[in-house]
Amino acid sequence: xxxxxxxxxxxxxxxxxxxxxxxxxxxxxxxxxxxxxxxxxxxxxxxxxxxxxxxxxxxxxxxxxxxxxxxxxxxxxxxxxxxxxxxxxxxxxxxxxxxxxxxxxxxxxxxxxxxxxxxxxxxxxxxxxxxxxxxxxxxxxxxxxxxxxxxxxxxxxxxxxxxxxxxxxxxxxxxxxxxxxxxxxxxxxxxxxxxxxxxxxxxxxxxxxxxxxxxxxxxxxxxxxxxxxxxxx
Length: 233
Ligand code: 6PG
Description:
seven-stranded mixed sheet, 233 residues, globular, three-stranded antiparallel sheet
């Protein structure tokens, strides 16, 4: 792993390939969980959606511990039925959560099946009052993160709702629910995960200081990426 200097108000951890990225990131998440549980008795973690975190979640099955103290939330969700394999909650369940004893009451899925508006209003009442310990986020080719898309509302201002209903999203499905930018930033740490050459342009835009959702949410974040996604090779 090589660490690049802070650019775009983020630090960049580059791994030679996706497997190394997965291993190091899973280890870092477990280290943070242990520290939070020892210090405060609980670990409040926000999960990233999409495909990139899938391998990391699977790697946590054998590496994680003290599962009774993990509390999980989602950064965003797609307005699809709960059993739909395209749901971010289904992905996490299938590769990780069904294999570990995290108490069900501490796994907070976004009720996106209710429709974006109702689900957003409901989820805002479920979020903890305190800041998260760790927020995991992906990044899209257009620089979006969670379901905060260029040209749409990002919820940077703390007077905006903590959870946003998202309509006409440019990435299917069009109806989504997303934590707002300010609520995602209410975290002790923020980790972005990016793998593959498809993410190069978005990461290059971030490093150039362009106004993209990932960069605005990612102030002070750590970006975990593989060499294929690194825009400066
Ligand atoms: C979603 C995600 C979204 C995702 C990026 C990257 O529900 O679609 O939360 O923000 O993280 O689009 O997706 P991939 O990891 O699949 O490239």
